[in-house]
## 1
Amino acid sequence: MSTLIKELPKGNLFLAVFVSGAVIIADTLVQHWVFSFLETENALIITPFFRLVQVWNTGVSFGMFNELAYGQVVLSAFSLLVCMGLLWPLLKTKDRMHAVAYALIIGGGLGNILDRSIYGAVADYLDFHVLDYHWPAFNVTDSAVFIGVVILLWATVKSTPHKDITTISSK
């Protein structure tokens, strides 16, 4: 293990800890700020298409698995396994874009685990809608996971060598 630690790109490790920590702290601060405004109101209307709400999600995205037996334990354990699984590529990558992507996903996962362990559910508070059609409420950590996945896909496609189309078509 000490050999692995010596080989780590230390800048990426620091960056990953910073980004993951920033995601968790930002989610916690925004959550407390939003919920302090919503103590007496059901929703705080920001724009005609965006409002702040207080939703406790015991499942996963879109409220799936809300009724899962031992759901909080199962979902937290799964999230922790995913975060742990992402540590290896995070620690091995030399690319900062990949490191940021992994850190966003890990920070988002750990932030949701923190909510589940403290509140028994994930606190969602961002609600976008068009007329009566609502996107399911989400939070900063959900956004970090989504952005991390998008960055990871983009960075992977960008770094993958592509064959020249003229070479393929001339064969």
## 2
Amino acid sequence: MKRIIFILMAIALMLASLDDASAQAYRRHNRRAVRAVGSGDYDRAMKQFNLGVVKDTSNAFLLKYNMAYALHQDRRDPALDMAKDSLALRYLDEIADDIAGTEYEYDYHFSRGALAIDMEDWQSAVDEFKKCMVMDPEDMMAKENYIYAKEHLKNQQNQQNQQGDQDNKDD
């Protein structure tokens, strides 16, 4: 009986050390990727984030969040900006359920709002920054982005109404 307990304890320790090793690998790759983003080496950052996801799936949602951030920050080629923003949005969509109710939920909605502004999706930007303001009513940056997006949404709706009026006159 003592031998079985010893074997079970040894297995538990081995599993714990494996979890620890994968968490260390995640942190190592995440640190490297964050440094690469800071220095503008987005290709290296994406490689490190991807390696981290492979090494530790329990933290995959954080790495995907960071990958979305890196894609959004990479503005080297304006022709690819919309595609990168779309991919970043897809990464954020993939982790929506994992983020809900965590300490990262505010940052998640703020990032989605910022992407929506860059993609000129004013309604989504308004919705995301409204969520941020509910979570942190004192955050001036969320309020400013909300007002900015709300003004652009209003202008867009006015232009659509004017276009509709013009089309009706042409008929």
## 3
Amino acid sequence: MKADMNSHLHRMASLSLIFFLFGAACSESRGEAPSKPIAYGLVIDNTDRGSLDDEIAIGTLFVNSNGPADETFVTKFTNSDDITIVQDLTAQKAMLADVLDNMFVESGSPAVLDAIYLAAQHLAGQEKVSRLAQGRRALVLIAHGAAIGSYYRIDDVLSLLREKGVMVYVI
């Protein structure tokens, strides 16, 4: 029981930090001007029954905090062969909520690096991101911690993220 409570507190502390950093990345300095739109992807690990409900709740918190011009896409992953964009970029919170609500647990070995790499490629390839979000783009990885079976190496992922200017926030 104590381990469950510590895990829950750790997730909440991590979430608070992520919201702080994500909000800071999305807003102008000191709130003097309205924040610019951001385009970001939720990258969600669908392999663990014990954490998927929490991951969906966290994703929903992010979607609900979107501004009117923010756009989000949702990627689910279970292994290297099953990384899927289940909702492309949209500002429609109801569409995003439906996609999150319909996620379910699937067996697999979570290929976290592959999911980040492919989601970053997808985000960087969106022409309207450059136009609307002025290049402001990020990924929010929501996973239970295991990183097994990735084809891409960490160096490949970091190189792509730097090249494309994509920030990654991990919960």
## 4
Amino acid sequence: MTQANPSPGLSQAGSISALEVMSYSPEETQKIGKRLGGEAKAGDVFLLVGGLGSGKTCLVQGLAAGLGVEDVVSSPSFVLLKQYRGRLPLYHIDLYRVDRREEVEDLGLEDYLSGPGVMVVEWADRGWGVWPQDHLLIEMDYLAETQRRLNIKAHGSRYEVLLQNLQQTWS
């Protein structure tokens, strides 16, 4: 069963700005992603940070399902970016093979950031400083074979609303 706890951190408006969610299966991780994808809007940016096996791609699979993507979603580690069609385009970026922020800047992701779709970035910590100030940061931790901790942090009022809606799902 997925559990959610508001983390300390309220915005000035009193809405939550951080949430910790525990997932006990890949299906639960996908369910979290599906909820986010169902509420995603054009221009949304989801930044995923976590080690190998922490569930980043699993979360993206759920997000894609929430956007109505019917294709099989896999990690674009070797091509860096995959685009999927759903009710909004999904731009799935994986920076695992990128070593420096300058390499991220050279990828020309500005078109995707200002495009009509939703951007989700795995290994987003390799591009700090490139991403927009407003985004949803999801830090994922592998705790056990079937247990993951997701620390979700809203940066910007749009994402505080999204986070509040996500919390209500598990309250």
